[in-house]
Write a structure and sequence with these properties.
There is one protein chain. With 372 residues, the protein is α+β, with helices and mostly antiparallel strands. It has helices spanning 17-23, 27-30, 35-38, 82-183, 186-212, 225-242, 261-278, 336-346, and strands at 3-7, 12-15, 48-55, 61-71, 74-81, 221-223, 245-251, 257-259, 283-294, 297-306, 350-356, 359-367. The strands form three sheets. A five-stranded antiparallel β-sheet has the order 2-1-5-4-3. It has a five-stranded mixed β-sheet with strand order 7-9-10-12-11. A two-stranded antiparallel sheet has the order 6-8. Helix 4 (82-183) runs antiparallel to helix 5, helix 6 runs parallel beside helix 7 (261-278) and helix 7 (261-278) packs antiparallel against helix 8. Magnesium ion binds next to helix 7. Residues 208, 270, 274-275, 278, 306, 308-312, 319, 324-327, 332-338, 360 line the site of adenosine-5'-triphosphate.
């Protein structure tokens, strides 16, 4: 630290190493040097704190804050170079700025880490979702290979059973005809009638199975959905009247579709038959067509709506799976809707269902035929 001890006459008695270093003078040169030659303006040095100059040996000067105190005939003056203070202040400011930068960097870093953690969380949940999807797909694959095996089994079964069934049905009907002519008792008639009826139901199952297990895709051609509806109702009309069902057909012009008339008729027959079964005491059946546009694609839409009992909640997610039925044995095979879904899929369409205890509506969307 630069400091001087001077006597009352203002002569330097001792100078610290800090002062020697600052001024460039050696101890000998400083000894007895008048204070005015090295500090201040020649006047007696003021007590207390003041700002003044320190003169260096090489003719320079340093601005200092001098702190003088006298005691027992000597004066002690300690000098604080203001330049160094400024330097210190500057470096303090720089250090503070550095600290702020570091703090900001730390905050950015902390934020980055948080972001990374939340990204990791998100990726983890995305991964979980993907895994879930993967296992679902795996399940579907297993399901579909099971279904293929089941389909092959069903196809050969249908083939094997069809022939003897035709025989049973033909013979029992022949017997019935001769019996009505009075050749046998009422009991026998009833029994043969039972055989004939059972064979008819089995034939219906076999017919379903054949459609269900068809391997080769049907021929597609431009089809008007509305004329498919009209043709299907030629068959369905009487049956609906017999079940006290009022039918409302409301067909709007729809775009042509690429399809197979017979297969599409099957869709309508299956949906209408289900609607009939859902209205055992009669009701209203509405069949509508309209054009719909979704995701920039045009669709011909067919709606089959009934005022029936609605689809039971416990099976609504599975109604398109084969063999799902709520009908008593012999009345339903549970294949109708799975066949329907298969046909709609062949036509690159999809089905939507709305159902509550007051009725059900099936909406079948088939993409419009693209113009070349
Ligand atoms: N319109 C409807 N209203 C109420 N329930 C329905 C309707 N359509 C289908 N379901 C329910 O979905 C089940 C499955 O229908 P699906 O057509 O596949 O088989 P099914 O009618 O039982 O038998 P199948 O059509 O093979 O003779 C039905 O048993 C019935 O419970
Ligand atoms: Mg059905």
């Amino acid at each position: 630290m630069p400091a001087i001890i001077a006597d009352n006459s203002g002569k330097i008695l001792r100078a610290s190493a800090g002062l020697r270093e600052l001024t460039g003078y050696c101890s000998r040169e400083l000894s007895r040097m008048p204070l005015g030659l090295i500090a201040g303006d020649g006047r007696p040095f003021p007590e207390g704190v003041s700002e003044t100059w320190l003169f260096t040996k090489d003719g320079g000067k340093v601005l200092v804050r001098a702190c003088a105190s006298s005691s027992s005939g000597a004066v002690l003056i300690i000098f604080h170079p203001l330049e160094r203070e400024k330097e210190l202040a500057d470096s303090l400011v720089a250090a503070r700025a550095e600290l702020t930068t570091r703090q900001r960097y730390l905050e950015d870093f902390r934020e980055g880490v948080f972001r990374m953690i939340s990204d990791l969380d998100r990726s983890e949940s995305e991964l979980k979702g993907a895994l879930q999807k993967l296992s679902e797909t795996q399940m579907q694959l297993m399901q579909s290979s099971k279904m293929t095996a089941l389909g092959e089994l069903a196809a050969s079964l249908a083939h094997e059973v069809a022939q003897p069934l035709t025989v049973i049905r033909g013979v029992s009907q022949g017997m019935l005809r001769s019996m009505t002519a009075g050749e046998a008792g009422a009991l026998a008639f009833e029994k043969v009638n039972l055989i004939s009826e059972a064979a008819r139901k089995m034939e219906a199952i076999v017919k379903h199975l054949r459609v269900f297990t068809r391997v080769t895709p049907p021929a597609f051609e431009p089809v008007d959905l509305n004329s498919v509806v009209r043709d299907a109702f030629l068959i369905l009309k009487e049956m609906l009247i017999a079940h006290s069902i009022d039918t409302v057909i409301d067909l709007a012009p729809v775009p042509g579709i690429a399809g197979n008339q017979t297969r599409l008729e099957q869709v309508i027959i299956n949906l209408v038959t289900n609607a009939r079964d859902a209205m055992p005491d009669g009701g209203v059946l509405k069949v509508m067509s309209l054009t719909s546009e979704r995701d920039g694609k045009r669709y011909a839409v067919l709606t089959v709506e009934d005022t029936g009992t609605g689809i039971p909640r416990e099976i609504i997610d599975r109604i398109f799976d084969p063999f799902v039925t709520t009908k008593e044995a012999g009345k339903g095979t549970g294949l109708g809707l799975s066949i329907t879904a298969g046909i709609v899929k062949e036509h690159r369409g999809y089905i939507k269902v709305e159902s509550d205890p007051h009725g059900t509506a099936f909406h079948v969307f088939i993409p419009a035929l693209e113009k070349c």
